[in-house]
Specification:
Blueprint lengths: L11 H8 L33 H5 L13 E3 H29 L27 H17 L9 H29 L4 E3 L4 H4 L3 H27 L3 H19 L13 E4 L2 E4 L6 H9 L1 H8 L3 H10 L1
Helix pairs in contact: 3-5, 4-5, 7-9, 8-10
Length: 312
């Protein structure tokens, strides 16, 4: 028989049985069916009068229960979204509305047959099917084009990875507009389930943002250390060019086939500063895989360099 997907309703108990996980956090080893945390890893608890009423009645010395918020304040959520997206949306409002009008891509992750829908972001191209490969490649390139995303390289997965980042931003803008509407209508709270998608980050985006932060922090630390000992702007530029060469010829490319990646930096009122590094997920993984080479090339301080090499 061919593999097939079965979609059905179930309650939490059924999910426990199907996954083999879930239950009381102190009586079941893996008490959560969505993560790998075990009961032996629980380290946060309350004692004394801070225990919940139930644990006090049962004379439990340690209380592992925590209050869970089942609603979100609209005003607080709006303030957070405005801080994160307000200026961006104001600047790109016309472009966002044009993209929404032209875009045909489907992003709903709850669609049961998303792998077989050729207009879905998670579409899986059948092996050896050149026609569907051509059609889907054209479809993704069109979606990138209407968003102004440059098609760097020739790999479909690279294009799709960048497109996912743009779609995530569009999803947040959609939530911003929805929360604005709630606020204007006088709604004060919303159930957590209505905003859960923006509260829990996509693991791919979380991985990439964390990696970008690590790379940016290390580069800035290197540059500050170098600038403290070398005051001239010419020496600063030589340092940046040398580090960029390490990226192009050793980390992301070779001497005979160097990468075209550019180290992001700008000149401000206080001198040269390294800007925040933004890379695709695959590029970030390649950099982290050779981060030891970057550390060795940039940092001259022996003890600090040794600690970073061990840590990363």
């Amino acid at each position: 028989m061919r593999p097939f997907n079965v979609v059905h309703n179930s309650d939490m108990k059924a999910a426990w049985y199907l996954s083999g996980r879930g239950g009381g956090c102190k009586s079941t080893n893996f008490f959560c069916l969505l993560c790998s945390c075990s009961k032996d890893q629980l380290v946060s608890f309350k004692v004394g009068d801070q225990r919940c009423d139930r644990c006090q009645r049962r004379n439990k010395p340690k209380c592992y229960h925590h209050p869970v918020c089942d609603s979100v304040q609209v005003a607080a959520l709006l303030s957070e979204l405005e801080s994160e997206l307000g200026e961006y949306y104001t600047r790109h409002k016309a472009q966002y509305e044009e993209v929404q009008r032209k875009s045909r891509i489907v992003t709903d992750h709850m669609v049961a047959n998303k792998e077989s829908q050729i207009n879905h972001i998670d579409f899986v191209i059948p092996p050896q099917d050149t026609e569907q490969t051509r059609q889907y490649t054209q479809f993704i390139s069109r979606e990138c084009y209407i968003r102004g995303i440059p098609l760097v390289g020739s790999q479909l997965e690279d294009w799709r990875a960048v497109l996912r980042c743009s779609l995530a931003m569009e999803s947040k803008i959609k939530f911003l507009l929805q929360v604005r509407e709630w606020h204007n209508n006088g709604r004060t709270v919303v159930p957590l389930v209505e905003v859960i998608e923006i509260i829990i980050p996509c693991i791919l985006h979380l991985e990439n943002r964390s990696r970008e932060k690590i790379i940016t922090t290390i580069l800035r630390y290197y540059f500050w250390e170098f600038a403290a000992k070398n005051a001239t702007e010419a020496s600063h530029k030589l340092f940046l060019n040398r580090i960029q060469g390490v990226f192009q010829k050793e980390i992301l490319g070779t001497v005979h086939s160097p990468s075209q990646w550019k180290l992001p930096w700008s000149k401000g009122t206080d001198g040269i500063v390294i800007d925040h590094v933004q890379v695709r997920n695959q590029t970030g993984r390649k950099i982290m895989a050779r981060i030891d080479r970057l550390i060795e090339a940039a940092l001259q301080d022996g003890p600090t360099r040794a600690k970073l090499l061990v840590a990363l």
